[in-house]
Write a structure and sequence with these properties.
- Strands 1-4-2-3 form a four-stranded parallel sheet. The chain has a three-stranded parallel sheet with strand order 5-6-7, covered by helices on one side. A three-stranded parallel sheet has the order 10-11-12, covered by helices on one side.
- It is an alpha/beta fold.
- The chain has 13 helices and twelve strands.
Length: about 300
């Protein structure tokens, strides 16, 4: 088994072992309609990409809000027991399981979970806007915490690396001095952290008015709140160049909606990834853009 902080490690691991699983000890709710926790997008992404035969709920231990409540109440033992039970059942279906680190509390909880499930750890650290000295200090702090809990470390993996050649060469030598293996680095690529339009739909429990699964399967690079005049919005989008934003506007701003639809079919653009209509504005018994779209399309 393997505890790590970055789910990107799953993809190279999948190339070498046929049954690699991804498990989140603490995460968002696996039920997007629950209303209390948002769907964990990483769980959904991994599940949809690799299409395992089991339900996405089996990939998670305890919902985040519940985990926070247990930690605050001093019931860490109960939390660890529940995580272990869910993990043990999940482990039976795989040759190897990659376990995501948590965002609850400090890194101590990660070490406690690794101890509970008898897993070695990969130390991961974000390299963006950090010097080599800062990275080394951060890694050694994590190493000391894992050493305190007697967790063996397989090595170090860096995320969001900007200057790969410089960072990798220097940090590799430093980590060797500290007795740690350098396993690799992931680049600071916007695609790796982008959110797709089709992830927004279930998260907000929104209704699709116009479009298809094909048009929704794309990333957006920014979010624009369109409260200004149409010409000002188009000028802003044109100035930003290749940006494909998700535009949020009120449902009674038909000028914005029609203007953006026109820009989509125009060679000159600008183009948008999607338009999200909010309920703010307008009379409560009017549907505005919804009625217009229904009549037009």
């Amino acid at each position: 088994m393997l505890l790590c902080i970055d789910w990107n490690i799953l993809f190279p691991a999948q190339r070498h072992l046929p049954f690699v699983g991804y498990f989140a000890p603490i995460g968002g709710s696996a039920n997007p309609g629950s209303g209390s926790h948002p769907m964990d997008r990483h769980l959904r992404l991994v599940h949809d990409t690799f299409e395992p035969k089991y339900d996405v709920k089996q990939m998670m231990g305890v919902p985040e809000e519940e985990a926070v409540r247990l930690v605050a109440a001093g019931q860490r033992a109960e939390l660890l027991d529940r995580v272990y039970a869910a993990f043990a059942a999940f482990r039976e279906m795989h040759d190897m399981v990659i376990v995501h680190g948590t965002s609850v509390g400090s890194g101590k909880l990660d070490a406690e979970i690794a101890n509970a499930i008898s897993s070695p750890a990969i130390i991961t650290c974000q390299a963006k806007d950090r010097s080599v000295a800062d990275l080394r200090r951060k890694v050694l702090l994590k190493k000391a915490l894992l050493d305190d809990h007697k967790i063996p470390q397989l090595g170090v993996c860096l995320n969001k690396v900007v200057n790969r050649n410089l960072i990798v060469t220097e940090i590799h030598n430093k980590l060797q001095e500290d007795g740690l293996n350098f396993l690799g680095a992931f680049p600071d690529d916007p695609v790796l952290r982008a959110v797709r339009v089709d992830e927004v739909l279930p998260a907000l429990e929104a209704q699709l008015m116009l479009g298809s699964n094909v048009t929704l399967d794309q990333e957006y690079s920014a979010v624009y709140v369109a409260s200004q005049r149409l010409e000002e919005l188009l000028e802003l989008m044109t100035t930003d160049g290749d940006t494909r934003p998700l535009v949020v506007t009120s449902r009674d701003r038909l000028d914005i909606v029609m203007g953006l639809l026109a820009s989509q079919v125009s060679i000159a653009g600008p183009n948008v990834a999607g338009i999200l209509l909010a309920h703010a504005g307008g009379a409560p018994n009017r549907t505005y853009a919804h009625s217009l779209m229904s009549r037009m399309f």
